[in-house]
Write a structure and sequence with these properties.
Elements (H helix, E strand, L loop, with lengths): L4 E5 L3 H14 L4 E6 L2 H11 L3 E5 L7 H8 L4 E6 L2 H9 L4 E4 L4 H14 L8 H13 L6 E6 L2 E6 L3 E7 L2 E6 L3 E4 L3 H7 L5 E5 L2 E4 L3 E6 L5 E5 L5 E4 L11
Parallel strand pairs: 1-2, 1-3, 3-4, 4-5
Antiparallel strand pairs: 6-7, 8-9, 8-12, 9-10, 11-12, 13-14, 14-15
Amino acid sequence: MRAPTAVIAEDEPILRRELRARLAELWPELAVSAEAADGLEATRAFAAHEPDVLFLDIQMPGMTGLEVARVASGKCHVVFVTAFDRYAVAAFERGAVDYVMKPFTSARLAETVARLKERMRERPANLDGILSLLAAKAADGKEHLRWVMASQGNTTSVITVDQICYFRADSKYTMVVTADREAVIRRPIKELADAVDPNVFWQIHRSTLVNINAVAGVTRDFRGHLSVRLKERKETLQVSESYVHLFKQM
């Protein structure tokens, strides 16, 4: 009996390597035939290798994971890889093989592997219905950023947005500041402002986005300038005049 095969399609190289490494631990018989960094690569890899399982990031450049899944529907088992709960719950409840939330956990991935092993004897599911549902949900409204991949020295790690006290532009980088550490990402503040939940992260300066849940209060100096005090950080954050109105209720 031949070993089961898989293709991993994930645009974040670190997460792609992590998923492959964890699969090797949990399912050593599984042979990963190819990896893909975007939807077009995933489609080519699927056609070339005809895998038994396709791990698909829903949001990828080129072609989305949903578009790739249409090509694979009924031909291989699909596991959606997503950072968004709304996608994941809908996919799972409508009978897709499974989903894996990013960042991955070994326990959750072990459940996925167990389900895949059970379904390997079955014909892969037709995904037309669930893909139409997911496409419709994607058009319903904007999803907000849930995590970032940030660098601290030679270490890169996943930081969920609820851990972040604030973002601050710093030359070519953006500082990601949590209660106990600082890291950097290459994403500009303007792009982050469009990606985060505006009810949670307030832009208080052209270079600063603050998590309102991390705010202890505000102070005003003798000139009338506002600064934000944080619950778990000693520094204060300047509020520019354009954003003072946000704090009128405080």
